[in-house]
Amino acid sequence: MNRSDVLIIGAGPTGLVLALWLSKLGVRVRIIDKTSAPGSTSRALAVQARTVELYRQLDLADTIVRRGHQVAAANFWVNGKPVAHLPLKRIGEGLTPYAFVEIFPQDEHERLLLERLEDYGVSVERNTALDSFEETGDTLTAHLRLPDGRQEVCQACYLAGCDGARSVVRKALDTDFPGGTYQQIFYVADITASGPALNGELHLDLDQADFLAVFPLAGEGRARLIGTVRDERAERADTLQFADVSSRAIEQLKVHIEDVHWFSTYRVHHRVAEHFRSGRAFLLGDAAHVHSPAGGQGMNTGIGDAINLAWKLAAVLSGGAEPRLLDTYESERIAFARRLVSTTDKVFSFVTAQGRMADLLRMRVAPFLLPKMAGVEASREFLFRTVSQVTLNYRGMPLSQGEAGHVHGGDRLPWAHDGEGDNFEPLRQPCWQVHVYGDTSDEMIAWCAEHHLPLHVFDWRPAFETAGLGRNGFYLLRPDTYVAIADNSADPKVIERYFRDHGIRPFQ
Prior knowledge:
This is FAD-binding domain-containing protein. This protein is α+β, with helices and mostly antiparallel strands and about 500 residues long.
């Protein structure tokens, strides 16, 4: 019987990243997908800074940045005229090595992930579907439908449902998926065009006409249009063609279309599963949560799910942690998913709302406020912190402890960089490690050496104080680079106690 450590259902970005991380950590994976080939079109575009930071652990960051397109600015239009210009080129300066907005379409993204996964000797099994599964003791048995129609029975220690909003895994677990569906029909079109909105920047129409955003793609004159379809046309979404889309917003943005390469319509949902785990089965990505496209959060959140779960599964499977560590996957990720759905829902509802008051806010109030906000560095930084996911944290969660400087247990480790070095360099290795900024004790040095726990001691510099890091304390970092312990002491017994209390044995 075909047996793996983890059986992954679905080979979108979430499933592929999970497979990659697990493979890098020595876990045997099997990944299946019911489609015959990777997607050649996509809706997801943005790769947020936090995702790129974590991709350093897979040596993917530089490739993503090189192949993608950095958006220099966002422009807001009303009545056919630009009313606000928001510079984005270094909007997150000092916060991250990737202080920009990166566009890298999902289809290209998936092809890159597939290439790297094959380097580990793992291929996606196409035209293969999950029929059912059951859990018996310490094993999960799955029934797969193969390309020739035959059924295969296989076993795995764990199963990961990365199979999208219509997840077979979620339905098999009988997990509720509460939420709703927005009334608007959306369209997406990849085009070649010319005009002032094809200058490599983001353009957003705030007019009372159909909502429209123009996203730049790599290459001369290439862009993606995302817009709404209202009135009676929305009732025939399945048969709509690009010619049926209202031209008013397109003309308002002065987009002169030369070619339409791809066009599709879809509805937007906002839902979060009641549970992200049941026994040995987990839900990730769109199988666990779907939300509006506001802020480009969807694909990045699914990738975050995968990274959070991967190191925990690897630890448990290797004997480096007790199975109860896996309980923290749901508690950490479901809280973020619920906050995200609530936030994107508010933004999305404002941008797409109809009626006189909504039009007044968009066309009169927003054009007045946006230029003022764009001119304030604090406003731009707040926007970047929110959208880039660098402020995503697990404060108050079971695996998070303490405070040192302005950093709490559960925070992403702040980036500190100057001419003398970069404190993120050691994070390329997905392992437990200790950071000290300043001086530490002989006991800490000896204990870390004895237990083969990497210890990185950085001479104190002003850059660390600016980043909010505490002097002479320590930070215990999880394999996903979030802070497990922030402590002002130099006492290794704090770490020893933490590992014992949480059933973690990273020295296996």
